[in-house]
């Protein structure tokens, strides 16, 4: 059995890089931190929903607080519900995870956040969004006399609308002066056929470098630690195989109900008891990934493409 090396850890980090990140890590990678020149627009699609409120906006706030976002960043929420900027701010503020003395910082952050309402299946709203982004980029995106506007789209939406929204973004909202990236939160399909269909749909619209598929559960510390324990711990590494492990048990525990997460359970047995629907969503992505984290062989290079294959 080969000894574990620092390279093994780097290889594992490479895998983590592409597919196993939480919202914050994904956004940080996708925005290449605060050093990149030009204007950065982060668009949260499904901004009126549960994931946006509980995970995505707080993650963006944490990046802002840590100085990982360029000074020329704006955050746009997009969804069908008609909301004012103020109503969106009031909705997300309690979830940002700010301490009582961070009032001014929160106000500064919310000042960067605005909201656009529009449909997912017609170009109208996306045209307004594109115009808004372009105006911001024209104003703030100057780099050495040239203009650069980078756009990050985060789909905090039910899976049923991913394909339509991706098509709209591709036809109406691509940046013509910088990069465009699309973050897709799990579930990535509910079975092999739907995962392949989604993959080929997105693959026809965006390049692999533009696509970030994430499951925030795999960015959790416990799961990340499993990777280190498997590949970088000299005691566990030689023992982590079928000769020494009789079975692996993964327990999914959640003690609360739907709580506004209608879209979350869409197509995953919404009529079923909440626990079963929640477990079905978790099983379709997170739990399989946990199992893979236990089992996948060490990839031979640290690039995401090596990890994917
Ligand atoms: N909530 C969570 O903790 C987690 C969620 N996810 C995933 O993130 C995505 C979003 O989840 P979540 O925010 O909970 O879902 P929501 O039900 O809150 O949906 C998000 C938004 O999408 C719009 N929407 C809801 N249902 C539909 C529909 N049938 N057709 C079109 N638009 C709809 C609504 O906005 P509007 O009507 O204003 O357009 C809603 O505010 C899902 O893929 C979910 O599986 C992943 C991990 C955790
Ligand atoms: O992916 C999921 O995330 C949500 C939120 O979980 P949290 O522990 O990060 O707060 C969870 O409710 C859901 O069951 C799971 O599939």
Automatic annotation (TrEMBL):
Pfam families assigned: G6PD_C, G6PD_N
Gene Ontology CC: one annotated term: cytosol
Keyword NADP: yes
GO BP annotation list: glucose metabolic process; pentose-phosphate shunt, oxidative branch
Gene3D superfamilies found in the cross-reference section: Dihydrodipicolinate Reductase, domain 2, NAD(P)-binding Rossmann-like Domain
Domain Glucose-6-phosphate dehydrogenase NAD-binding: 43-225
Keyword Oxidoreductase recorded: yes
Pathway: Carbohydrate degradation; pentose phosphate pathway; D-ribulose 5-phosphate from D-glucose 6-phosphate (oxidative stage): step 1/3
Reaction(s) catalysed by this chain's protein: D-glucose 6-phosphate + NADP(+) = 6-phospho-D-glucono-1,5-lactone + NADPH + H(+)
Domain of life: Eukaryota
Keywords, comma-separated and alphabetical: Carbohydrate metabolism, Glucose metabolism, NADP, Oxidoreductase
Stored SUPFAM superfamilies: Glyceraldehyde-3-phosphate dehydrogenase-like, C-terminal domain, NAD(P)-binding Rossmann-fold domains
EC number per UniProt: 1.1.1.49
InterPro entries noted in UniProt: G6P_DH (IPR001282), G6P_DH_AS (IPR019796), G6P_DH_C (IPR022675), G6P_DH_NAD-bd (IPR022674), NAD(P)-bd_dom_sf (IPR036291)
GO MF annotation: an example: glucose-6-phosphate dehydrogenase activity
Family per similarity comment: Belongs to the glucose-6-phosphate dehydrogenase family.
Listed name of the protein: glucose-6-phosphate dehydrogenase (NADP(+))
Species per Swiss-Prot/TrEMBL record: Chara braunii (Braun's stonewort)
């Amino acid at each position: 059995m080969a000894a574990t090396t620092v390279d093994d850890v780097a290889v594992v980090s490479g895998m983590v890089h592409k597919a196993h990140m939480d919202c914050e890590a994904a956004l940080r990678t996708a925005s290449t931190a605060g050093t990149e020149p030009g204007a950065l627009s982060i668009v949260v699609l499904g901004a009126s929903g549960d994931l946006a409120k509980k995970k995505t906006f707080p993650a963006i706030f944490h990046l802002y607080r840590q100085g990982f976002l360029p000074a020329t960043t704006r955050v746009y929420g997009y969804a069908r519900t008609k909301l004012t900027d103020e109503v969106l701010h009031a909705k997300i503020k309690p979830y940002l995870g700010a301490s009582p003395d961070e009032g001014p910082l929160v106000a500064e952050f919310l000042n960067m956040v605005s909201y656009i309402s529009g449909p997912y299946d017609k170009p109208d709203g996306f045209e307004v969004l594109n115009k808004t982004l372009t105006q911001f980029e024209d104003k703030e995106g100057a780099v050495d006399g040239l203009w650069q506007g980078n756009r990050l789209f985060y789909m905090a939406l039910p899976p049923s609308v991913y394909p339509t929204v991706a098509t709209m973004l591709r036809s109406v909202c691509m940046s013509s002066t910088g990069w465009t990236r699309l973050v897709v939160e799990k579930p990535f399909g509910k079975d092999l056929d739907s995962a392949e269909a989604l993959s080929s749909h997105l693959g026809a619209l965006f390049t692999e470098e533009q696509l970030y598929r994430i499951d925030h559960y795999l960015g959790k510390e416990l799961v990340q630690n499993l990777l280190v324990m498997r590949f970088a711990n000299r005691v566990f590494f030689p023992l982590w195989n079928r000769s020494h492990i009789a079975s692996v048990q993964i327990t999914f525990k959640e003690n609360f109900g739907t709580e506004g997460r209608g879209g979350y359970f869409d197509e995953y047995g919404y009529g079923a008891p909440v626990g079963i629907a929640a477990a079905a969503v978790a099983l379709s992505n997170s739990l399989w990934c946990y199992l893979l984290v236990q089992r996948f062989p060490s990839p031979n290079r640290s690039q995401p493409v090596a990890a994917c294959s």
